[in-house]
Amino acid sequence: MAVSRDRILTVFSLFILFSFLAYADSNFSHYTLRILQNIAIFITLAVSYNLINGIAGQFSLGPNAFLAVGAYASAIFTLSPEEKLRSFIIEPMLWPLSVISVPFAASLLIAGIVTALVAILMAMPVFRVRGDYLAIVSLGFGEVFQVLANNSMSITNGSLGLKGLHPYTNLWWSWGICVFTVFCTLRLVNSSYGRAMKAVREDETAAEAMGINAFRIKTLAFAFSAFFQGVAGGLLAHLITTISPSLFTFMFTFNLLIIIVIGGLGSTTGSIIAAVLITWGGEALRFFEEPANLFGFQYDGIPGMRMVLFSVILILVMLFARSGIMGRSEFSWEGALGWIKNKLSVMKV
Amino acid sequence: MASGFQGDFKFFDLGRHFSKSPPSSFTLSFEDKVLDYSFALQQLVYGLTVGCLYGLLAIGYSMVYGVLRLINFAHGDLLMVSAYVGFFGIVIFHLPWPVSFAGAIALTALLGILIDRGAYKPIRKSPRINALITAIGVSFLLENVALVTIGGRPKSFPTPDFVSGAIVVGDVSIPTLSVWVFVVTVVLLTLCMAVVKKTRIGMAMRALSRDMETVMLMGVDKDRVISFTFALGSALAAAGGIMWCMKYPAVEPFMGVIPGLKAFVAAVLGGIGSISGAAMGGMILGLAEVFIVAVQPEWSGYRDAVAFFLMIVILLTRPTGIMGERLPD
């Protein structure tokens, strides 16, 4: 049966993934583990950003705001009251927040829920406009959140940031949440809600004529992706263990944008592949910034060259390979097995 | 209401060219501030100065959007480019002021044309989302190239002598720079309106913004007109950039990001696609920023958020802007 074959294959590959992670946990270096966790977090972010940008077609430039909200929410709730007293030296923290401290899992959940609520609140002004204006308004909200984070000394400790967070994030948390996010997103996209989102993306007026409440669907996509971005923010906060408002700038959104554009706007698989490529590539490309001996010529490393390369890559992709790696198609076991069979039969000839 | 600060409070973020520090606003109560005419007039001067700068930037945004329906994210970075060119001209090559400024404006206009031909022209037929992403890419490219080649440490833009000092009228101190900014803005605005309303290429620009296909049928070289639009908008941005640097003398690669965003907000406020609307939007934004911070100094950290707050309000209530013509689809 097609369904059970697919399920078996999926479960099997997940098993392979987690055995690999178990192996990695005990054998790989700290640096490699860190990259693996980064990859997982970026996959989570890319997949949820792709949901609102690629599948619902609403070009939002504000995920850095959701990331910030999630990171701060999670951090505020995991710090113990003594640590809060130590961090908030200029202005004491707001009362109920200064005494609450919850375990990590609960704080991630809270972070996700708070971010989703913020997204629902934002949806009303943001989805009044479309296209370019939507992009700018969401960008504006991103900036507003940074300004708010910098100025609310009693909640976020302003520009001092929060430090000394426990490094709760490990390989299992990050990859577990990553798998969960991909699973949820794929289920959403393949449901009637996902089809409604794609309809709204293609032609909003026609979708409304078919009885889809465009605003509700857009808000659903927005809140859904915000939830996972908030959770990812919490993971990131506990990976880096120090957060401050200057971490969540438009540069972050730009990184995510590159990832989903290169992967193919509208393809979840594409986002995953691109997230792996860009995160790993970003590290691998660090050699551009180190001095090197290139064919006998001494090449002094140019710091910051990575971002120039990324910008050039983005422009080239937009000019020449607009649909990215996967376009809008997704991975499917049928397609993969068919491709393998094809190659095998070609080889036999 | 009166807060803890007492005594002299130099408004250091508004330039260092005053001969007299403005009256300390923290010791005045709300009623005193509003009824104190000299204080209000002083803030008016500052607001108009900043507003003119935003207006100059916003005009470029408005023109490009009107003709191409493209939000040129790289526009704010043109401000940065002109600042750096001016800086290099004056400090490194020791050219006289007029030459450096003219060179900055010319080179920025050239860069604007280059960006259009290189990055935006190939994707003119694609959906607008692609153009937006490309614009973001170009913006980042400019910023990071500047970062890599020149370095991120802020450089200090030198101030020519003829813009330092201030004219004191009663209790109000009008910086000479503000006078220059206002005069230059008025002159440039008049020139721009004259070009758009009275010349043939201006007519082509206006026609292009209404119906691109028909304009092509009329035998107009669309690419030339678009390049001219970019050149004009970039030149105005360059002029604004140089004056911006004389007001806030720190030049660094990311200096154009926030002014660019605010200029877009100003363009939206005034009605995108309309040049006079952009100028007016810039004034309104500048005045709003200055007055809100003057009346409530505790909100000075939120100064940048004022622009976005205004934008959200205007998009919710009157999306076509104050002098706007059309709604984006």
Your description of this structure?
- The complex is a heterodimer of chains A (349) and B (329).
- With 349 residues, chain A is mainly alpha-helical.
- Chain A has a single domain, classed as ABC transporter involved in vitamin B12 uptake, BtuC, CATH 1.10.3470.
- Chain A is built from 16 helices and 4 strands.
- In chain A, strand 3 and strand 4 form a beta hairpin.
- The model of chain A has no long low-confidence stretch (mean pLDDT 85).
- Chain B has a single domain, classed as ABC transporter involved in vitamin B12 uptake, BtuC (Orthogonal Bundle), CATH 1.10.3470.
- In chain B, the strands form 2 sheets. Chain B has a two-stranded antiparallel sheet. Chain B has a two-stranded antiparallel ribbon with strand order 2-3.
- In chain B, strand 2 and strand 3 form a beta hairpin.
- The N terminus of chain B is likely disordered.
- The chains are: A mainly alpha (349), B mainly alpha (329).
- The interface between A and B is large, with 39 and 42 residues.
- Give the CATH class of chain B: Mainly Alpha
Label the overall shape of chain B.
globular
CATH fold name of chain A: ABC transporter involved in vitamin B12 uptake, BtuC
Q: What is the correct CATH architecture of chain B?
A: Orthogonal Bundle
The CATH class of chain A is identified as Mainly Alpha
Stretches with pLDDT under 50, minimum 5 residues of chain B: 1-25
